[in-house]
Amino acid sequence: MRFQFALIAAKLAAFAINIVAKGRGTNLPGRIALKFDPDFISHIKGLDPAKTIFVTGTNGKSTTTNLMAHVFKRAGLKVAVNLEGANLIGGVIVSLLKNCSLSGRLNADVVLMETDERFLPIIHKQLPAKNLCVTNIQKDQVQRNGEPEIIRRKILSVINDDMTVYVNGDEPNALSLGEKAGRCVTYGVDRNASSFDKQKDFFSVTAPCPICHEAVVYNYYNIDNIGSFSCPSCGFGTAANHYQAEQIDFEGKTFRSGGKVYDFKYSTPYFLYCYIAALTVASEFGVKEEDISSAFADFALQGGRMETITIGSKEIKYLRMKQENPETVQSALNVIADDTSNKIFLLGLDELVDFDPHYTNTFYTFDCDFRRLIESGIERCICFSGTVAYDAGLRMLYDGFPQEKLTVLPTNDDKTIIEELEKYDCDNVYLITWLHKYEALAEYVKSLK
Fold this sequence. Notes:
By secondary structure, this protein is an alpha/beta fold.
């Protein structure tokens, strides 16, 4: 009776929210369900842990989940999935509700859920999925997550000998999770045109081995701290991955795996790991190669990854990526570096206002390599911030950027930033900053018009 009441109340709440604010009810109905029945998920009929997949990790879990869902649907399977990115327990329940009858029976062939890595143990307790895909475990949102080892241990706590894990074999923390699982399937990406090595100098940063805690050595990097690696101390490292992206052609937007050629529309290493992860899980679930290939060819992300602000003849391109860890910052830098025409680079690192204590740092940028960006034709770099503008400017200088081309603005004032930008003739402008600052700049430019 309690479950039935919770089910109806949650469905009514979702219906009402959809009328008032369509697309907003991604968590609240789930929280309502839990209030009436704390064990709500366990009471859903027809929920099979063996056909339930969790996707978690620091970077790439939303794209990987969307891509997997697209592949499963192309194969004709009905999928219960949280594509909205609501990856806490409330969001998982809402996604299940959408596929539940009024009697509480689930109508889905596969349950596919993006799960927040910090709350995975809580979600797994209610829904003991037997399949777990881990994209990577990296530095991220330090005031929430602390150190990556904390997150690794949280994920490790749910793994048991009745679980299959699909892990990134090119990332130390993710790969280490396989030891505790009943079955471990690894995936990775070969050295390619976008692979890089780090110079061995004072600013060279690597990852600690999750087994013995000594520094690991990378044969090459595809993303910062992701690539073929080994630990000289204990021997832990990348082996022959079960699924590998090979013969990668970024211009033709294709890669080969298992003798089959696949298209990938978003041709950067960051997205390539999402593709090979999706291919791995779908293949293990018996999806045919032709369905995977067909789904990859027409997959489209919801929402753009690049926003633009136009001011006069200038176009400011903002790379809409999470700026709270070094891997996404590096990916943004690489995208900018791919444009070898003259450009202005705006870098605005500042205080992150989330919950107390707010924090300000530039340590993420010391994990990044700015050299390829610097060599790609930056006419002017403008570092602005109310807190760490000079720190960001120094980071550019440390990697060899000419000081005479550097402007430092110790302010967040929109008027000052735009007026400085208008001093230069170059119309090709790129921006890396926090989302709220981009939105403030966009509103300011709009007010000028």
